[in-house]
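Posted in: Protein Modeling Q&A

I'm a second-year student putting together a small comparison for a lab meeting, and my supervisor asked me to include a predicted structure for Alpha-galactosidase. I've never done this before, so apologies if this is the wrong subforum. The sequence is pasted below exactly as I got it from our records. If anyone can share the structure token output, I'd also love a short note on what stands out.
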Amino acid sequence: MSRAACLLVIISLMSPAAEALDNGLALKPTMGWLHWERFMCNIDCDTDPNNCISERLYMQMADVMVKEGWKEAGYEYVCIDDCWPSHQRDAQGRLQADPKRFPGGIKKLADYIHSKGLKLGIYADVGDKTCAGYPGSLGYYEKDAQTFADWDVDLLKFDGCFMNRALLGEGYSNMSKALNNTGRPILYSCEWPLYEWPLKQPNYTAIRETCNHWRNFDDVFDSWSSVKSILDWTAAHQDIIVPAAGPGGWNDPDMLVIGNFGLSHDQQESQMALWAIMASPLLMSNDLRDICPRSKELLQNKRIIDISQDSMGKQGYRTAKGNNFEVWERPLSKNRLAVAVLNKLETGGPRGFNIGAAPGWKICGPQCNVTQILPQYKEMGVQTQQSKIIVSVNPSGTALLTVTPISSDFTRLHKLNWQGTFVRRKHTIL
Ligand code: GAL
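Accepted answer (user: helix_wrangler)
Welcome! Here is the predicted structure, written out as tokens:
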């Protein structure tokens, strides 16, 4: 192949399947904090002032994000979910924040968040009402988009409750246009496919052109069964959803629940590793004011965040499964590969897995360099295709590694990495 043809093949392999929403945002998976899973619709500020949905909560979270290294680690968006507005629109028909819980209003809150070098996200709904029964945006898309822009909001999570499912696409796309027309860059987080799946297979080309990320599946709960169900759904639908992901638009498997109550440390490591492999937004829903040091260290682990934020922006696949192990692999820039090995057996102790059995290991011919990131950081040095490295994986835990090929023959490597590993999507049975 000529040099030019080779370059073309590389460029076409690197571009995502469809055009992303052209607002210049979410070129890497969004990082930040979102209140829902941890704080839900707690509006009782009289008895629970510390945890209720109020301006104080977001201001405190922003303060901690700056002071405790979250911002430096890349977490940028502080996001409000449902239950922030007043039940009535104002005299001009505009949404307004609940006056008791947000006495300063959203514009002032945005100013505060911006003064910390962070960004503010807000929540609304494509239908008549939000899921918790607050005013929906149906009939008010332009007005609400303009209101959010006037308040200097940076992200909108747009839910899909109380909407005629046949009109979801029209609604999501009209709000996308309304946001665009304000002239303010507002990252657009959708739940369109989640609400459409019961009706028909969503059109991911249209979704990618409309939204910066999109929820496909149920809400995450603070439990291992919930995290597992999200992984299972993603693997079962990967051929449909993975090609849609890329710079500007991402599949959203919902919030990180690391640092809460329901996941063991191994399970927290699994969520962090797999969310990085899935090129998911990293939106934590936890209490950053009170989080255990191990969870904090995991959420701020630079090597995992680097996988999540890899510049090539390709989502990974589950590439092999068997013997209660799953292998998930994500192609990274510079022909590298991230490999996650999840031990799904929830009994017994640590089990060994021969990493040479991972389908992507073929990039180790003639040689590769291996770094283990989870459960411990360890340089494993130069390996070959024949190396037998056994990684130990705890029940419901994950071993995470990066593999860097060593070769001067770029073209051959490229073929192996891209065509050998990732065009074939059939599962290997271990
Ligand atoms: C759900 C949505 C959740 C949360 C909740 C608020 O439909 O998926 O993430 O936003 O509504 O009521």
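A couple of things worth pointing out for your meeting: The first strand starts at residue 31 and ends at 34. The pocket of beta-D-galactopyranose is lined by residues 36, 81-82, 130-132, 159, 161, 191, 219 (CB under 6 Å).
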